[in-house]
């Protein structure tokens, strides 16, 4: 296998699968809290779109999952598992991502490490470094692909029962912004724009330039779609 897409069940990796021309996909089940909801979403989408999907059960990292759903170094583990199977590894990082293990610099360094220790040229990269989540959803819709499938994707860090997105976590907020800015109404257990943290933290942080300019522009544009002009 020459290339592989790391598939997470979220919006970005589902769109990436279309964007990259339908490559083989790998989902890594780390026994984390959201796994049941993610597996339900990816199985549904894999069946609908005949996604050539492998599910890896090789690592149990539940012990290292933080309260907020983050597993440190997760993308490095994913890349190591993928490097047994392919030389080009796609992982859907988006414009402005700057977490420790998900950024152009992090992917460059992981590629360098895997190339050295496997003694094969390994490339970990994202097709979306120049696109925001809003741009990615716009691209997907411009292809005439079904909105229903976009809404079947799953990306909540604190899921409610039956796979409902909580509307009260950073991942839900980013999902809502990307969909709202494309005129797509998505179900959430609680409305993301009424999450107290939006007003207590995000509004001042977006104004103070803590986030990249495109992130704050898309944030305020999304709030305007529900009549909020802070
Ligand atoms: Zn959530």
UniProtKB/TrEMBL annotation:
Presence of keyword S-adenosyl-L-methionine: no
Entries under SUPFAM superfamilies matching the protein: Adenine nucleotide alpha hydrolases-like (SSF52402)
Entry annotated with the keyword Metal-binding: yes
Keywords from the named record: ATP-binding, Ligase, Metal-binding, Nucleotide-binding, Zinc
Family statement: Belongs to the QueC family.
Pfam families reported in the protein's UniProt record: QueC (PF06508)
Coiled coil: none
Organism ancestry: Bacteria, Bacillati, Actinomycetota, Actinomycetes, Pseudonocardiales
Catalysed reactions listed for this entry: 7-carboxy-7-carbaguanine + NH4(+) + 2 ATP = 7-cyano-7-carbaguanine + 2 AMP + 2 diphosphate + 2 H(+)
Organism of provenance: Halosaccharopolyspora lacisalsi
UniProt pathway annotation: Purine metabolism; 7-cyano-7-deazaguanine biosynthesis
Name of the protein described by the UniProt record: 7-cyano-7-deazaguanine synthase
EC id: 6.3.4.20
MF terms in GO: ATP binding; ligase activity; metal ion binding
InterPro entries: QueC, Rossmann-like_a/b/a_fold
């Amino acid at each position: 296998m020459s290339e592989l897409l790391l598939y997470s069940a979220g919006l970005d990796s589902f769109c990436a699968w279309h964007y990259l021309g339908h490559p083989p996909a790998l989902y890594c089940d780390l026994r984390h809290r959201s796994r049941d909801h993610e597996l339900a979403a990816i199985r549904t989408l894999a069946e609908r779109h005949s996604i050539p999907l492998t599910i890896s059960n090789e690592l149990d990292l539940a012990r290292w999952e933080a309260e907020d759903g983050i597993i440190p170094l997760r993308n490095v583990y994913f890349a190591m598992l993928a490097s047994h199977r392919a030389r080009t590894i796609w992982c859907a990082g988006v414009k402005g991502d700057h977490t420790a293990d998900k950024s152009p610099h992090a992917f460059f360094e992981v590629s360098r490490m895997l190339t050295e220790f496997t003694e094969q040229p390994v490339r970990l990269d994202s097709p979306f470094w120049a696109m925001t989540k809003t741009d990615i959803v716009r691209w997907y819709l411009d292809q005439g692909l079904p909105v229903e499938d976009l809404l079947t994707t799953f990306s909540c860090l604190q899921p409610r029962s039956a796979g409902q997105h909580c509307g009260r976590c950073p991942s839900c907020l980013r999902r809502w912004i990307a969909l709202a800015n494309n005129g797509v109404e998505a179900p959430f257990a609680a409305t993301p724009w009424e999450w107290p943290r939006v007003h207590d933290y995000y509004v001042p942080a977006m104004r103070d330039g803590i986030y990249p300019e495109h992130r704050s522009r898309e944030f305020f544009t999304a709030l305007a779609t529900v009549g909020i002009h802070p």
